[in-house]
Amino acid sequence: MEEQYKISDPRVLKAVAHPLRVRLLGLLRTDGPATASELGRKVGESSGSTSYHLRELFKYGFIEEDADRRDGRERRWRPRHRYTSWDAVEMSATAEGREAVKIIHLRQAEMVGRVMEEFDVADWPREWVDASGMSDHILILPPAALAEFKKKAEELLLELADRYAGDPDARKVHVWLGAVPRTPPSQEGP
Known about the structure:
It is a single chain. This protein is 51% helix and 11% strand. The protein contains eight helices and five strands; from the N terminus they run E-H-H-E-H-H-E-E-E-H-H-H-H. Helix 1 runs parallel beside helix 6 (95-118), helix 2 crosses helix 4 (47-59) and helix 3 packs across helix 4 (47-59). The N and C termini lie far apart (50 Å).
């Protein structure tokens, strides 16, 4: 599996921004290869619907057939990349690109909400509950500081994943990193 899929075409970003497609791709990335029927049961859709959206994800290069684990009756799909990325400035050079970036950001926020809705502290031991959660901070920072934070946070996550690889207490976890300025420069006061 490749590390990342760097998108520069807004049509490709819009293709994955469909609510069901982004969920299917996320499930393939987190839970591993699956058939349209298996995914349909997870998301409450028909296998015909999930099959159509999986073919669209295939068409745009997000997934591939899993030849190692063939199912006799239907295709088993797997992700081609660990994650998807794009240059927001480059992508936003056109109205179509700005719309695609906005839609995908909203889909990412929906996913965070869905994961938090599914998380029940009663299902987890205290050490997991204490270590997990969400917080938000409103700070005054220049772009350079925010870029530095993002870079260091990603480096730290990769370092921790490497350090704790193979730990018997390790589980798949969702980690989100998001930061946006609060007020456009044109609307700021003196």
